[in-house]
Amino acid sequence: MNELHHVQRPATRVPRYVAPATLDDALAIRSERGAAARPIAGGTDLVVELDRGAHDGVEVLLDLSRIPGLGATTTDDEAIRLGATTTHADVVASETCRSEALALAQACLEIGSPQLRNRATVVGNVVTASPANDTISALTALGARIEIASATRRRTQPVEEFVTGFRETTLADDELVIGITVPRAATGQRSIFVKSGLRRAQAISVVHLALSVTFDGDDVVDARLALGSVAPTIVGVPGLADLLRGRTIDQDVIAAAGALAADAASPIDDLRATADYRSAQVAAMTERALAALAADAQAARWPARTPLLRAAPSPGRGPIDELDAETPITVRVNGAPVTAAAATGVTLLDWLRDQAGCTGVKEGCAEGECGACTVHLDGAAVMGCLVPAARAADCDVTTVEGLASDGALASIQRAFVEHHAVQCGFCTPGFLMACDALLAELPDPSLAEVRAGLAGNLCRCTGYRAIEAAVATAASTTAVEVTR
Prior knowledge:
By secondary structure, this protein is an alpha+beta fold. Helix content is about 30%, strand content about 20%. The protein has 3 domains: about 5-65 and about 315-400, Ubiquitin-like (UB roll) (Roll); about 75-295, CO dehydrogenase flavoprotein, C-terminal domain (Enolase-like, domain 1); about 405-484, [2Fe-2S]-binding domain (DNA polymerase, domain 1), CATH 1.10.150. The protein is built from 17 helices and 20 strands. The longest helix has 20 residues, at about 275-295.
């Protein structure tokens, strides 16, 4: 019997949802229910997989995102610690991560779009265990360890040992990943992440790599290189340290390092690239990365300001007792409370349209690629199609219907009208919500910052220039209104 394509499979509708108050509560649920209690934090991978009919046997979503302190990034003398719900946006915003674990910050900035980075977690990226997942190579090159817990035990494991195969890890059914520790940078240590994709944003890696090199003056003391999208798991290049140690980086050394890295890869042909192309890319990218580190230019392309599409970190919210499809939740939608049930097994996008009557929120792709469903959840732009509806209980949600005030259009809406930044109009609500979040965060964005901030929104009518002009007009209008 032929297996159904994922688009033919019925979606997996998880019937129950719970957001525990403490980590101990979460571990107790995992201990009692095992694989039937599926952990979720950001959900940007899991929600898509469930919609494609994956993960049979899941009875309850175990949401960790409301546990106080579980998303904290902390440091001590030895390590930077990322909590289980630390998002990619949190890492990008962290000065400590940028200064001491640059490869990780660069990898986080390459993942998805601002809306996805506001939800997706670093731990989730690792647990998904795809060799194309950008942070795994960065964490491997930086020597990170995974912290794992159950109700009865604690253990740690190097990242490269935790991931055992394609989408396979050592995590048991009663365990949760509770954090990741990244060693503090040694004196002279520099790192960089390099990615090759088929487009500028929202791109799955054709090839990526992370390289960490420790220098003593101009001479190399140690080196770690991790390659992604070239094998079923992230691939290390153990001979690189021996090749570089005690040497000064010159063109001959750079060429030898590139050749060694290419030999370590075992890529395949697929829709995104041929094996030969990937091998050639590994060599070229390794050479460029090593040259950048030798010149201490690893941060040369890091933007002066990085649009996060959130004015501030989301406020903490209390726990949610286990609920089912008949249990009502209350969400403050555009400033007014909406109470309705049917919040399990569906996305925030569907709940807003079907229960709250917010039909301005559109479904374009249902997998976080197009941005048509962008809404603000507690002040952060997110993809409504990737957020479990129950996660919004007791939260503030703003949709395109909430931008106007007392019948007067917001400045960004007026600017869209002025510049005719609408063609078919289907993508427009999502663009407006992303633009509004961008201007709230960066009232004076440059063109590059506008493009970075709107990278998660697609216009299939190719109306981008009019949209960019509208943002510039709205920014100048807001500045005039503020100074009056």
